[in-house]
Amino acid sequence: MTLTKTGKILIAVILALLFAGLNTRSNLMHLFNTFLICIWLFSPMLAQRNLSGVKIKIQHPHETFAKEHISIQVLFHNTTDEHKYAISLKDATCQQNIFVYNLPPQSRVLSTYTTTYPRRGVVRWKKLPLETIYPFGLFQNKISLSTDNKLYVLPAILRLENFYIEYFARHDRNKQLQMTNNKTSRDSFSRLRDYVQGDNPRYIDWKASAKKDDLIVRQYVDLNPIECSIAIHFDMQSQYTTQQNENFENIIVLAASLTSEIQQQGRLNDFIVGDKKVKSTKLKPVLRFLTELKIQDLPFTLTKQHKNLIVLTNRVTKPLKEFLQNSPQTTLILTQKSERYVNHQYVFFVRENSIRLEKLC
Fold first, then answer.
1. Which of the 8 DSSP states describes residue 306?
2. Which keywords label this protein (predicted)?
3. Residue with the larger pLDDT of the pair 255 and 170
């Protein structure tokens, strides 16, 4: 029970009236002062009674994506035969306040609010704080209701700029050249994309190119999809800093976006995080694993080569450098520019709705 600003003002008024009543010997002033004291004394009891018998239940999806709007429903249940007034619930996970003016006896009131979670993680509602200042606003009564609600906020999947053109296209160009005489190639048509040097001219879509005023080619899905592997390596370097946390979160978002892109256009063979390998390479298990991953040193422990390996890191350490020297075909993606170690080396920048990859020359 907490005394509000209004309650403190009332105490000052009571003391002032008491002092004035003693000096003037006015019975009417003493009577009015007694009335104010009774109000002040009964307020905490009424405020406590107002929250008794109220139950809360939160209804929400089991999982959502970061930066995605989500609707959360709060069910207020009055289990008593009395009216409840002016009840508020503060959701500390997203700084939302839900207010119910009137809760009739034996009734349920459903309140809905929309929120977004900026980053991945597991949101847990362990305690739900109910508040009321009913009836006179002199005292604020708070109680905490226990709950076991849990929401998985999966990493945001952003659009990758220049990724297909700069990475997958170098594999597809060779395959498209072999498909020149394949009469069933039209059956495996996937989408239209920008022309890059080395594409087979026979696959240029002249009608689409005329509309866009640039060369557009038809992309086909090979019966043998591209196989890739992703490895995440993170070096803490020294003590924890805000910039390190930002780089770690950006790597997680890039890993989730890459996994989604590869699942659409090829097949993910292995997903390696530090010295561990994710059991399932399907999209949802990988996203769930990344959701609960905490910032930490993720050492690079790979010794054997993986086909079409993509390494995501914030810094090239000595073990990684030695691996890259023996695996020049590895694709390296860094959080910041550095010296060149392999032919396919990129630096990425996370924007509001996309991730831009720039190749280091």
1. -
2. Membrane, Transmembrane, Transmembrane helix
3. 255
- Considering the domain architecture, whether residues 187 and 276 belong to the same structural domain is answered as no
Do 173 and 142 lie in a common domain? no
Torsional class of 25: left (φ above 0), alpha (ψ -120 to 50), beta (otherwise): left
Give, for 20, the enclosing helix (H) or strand (E): helix 5-24
Tell me the whole-structure pTM to 2 decimals. 0.74
Q: Closest Cα to residue 20, out of 10, 29, 32, 12?
A: 29
pLDDT in tens, 138-165: 888 888 888 888 899 999 999 888 765 4
Burial (Cβ within 10 Å: 0-12, 13-18, ≥19) of residue 228: buried
Task: Kindly list the distances between the CA atom of residue 123 and the CA atoms of 80, 112, 290, 300, 337, in Å, as whole numbers in the listed order.
Answer: 31, 18, 14, 30, 34
Beta carbons within 8 Å of 70's beta carbon, 6+ residues apart: 60, 61, 64, 114, 115, 116, 117
Characterise 332 by phi-psi region: left (phi > 0), alpha (psi -120 to 50), beta (else).
Answer: beta
- Alpha helical stretches, state H, 165-225: 169-178, 206-212
HSE-CB at 265 with a 13 A cutoff on CA atoms is 19
**Does the pLDDT value for residue 187 go beyond 50?**
no
Over residues 344-356, the pLDDT tens digits come to 888 898 888 888 8
CB neighbours (10 Å) of residue 37?
A: 15
Residues 173 and 59 both lie in one domain: no
- The two structure tokens encoding residue 299: 């050492």
For residue 278, the domain's CATH number is: 3.40.50
Cα separation, 348 vs 339, whole angstroms: 15
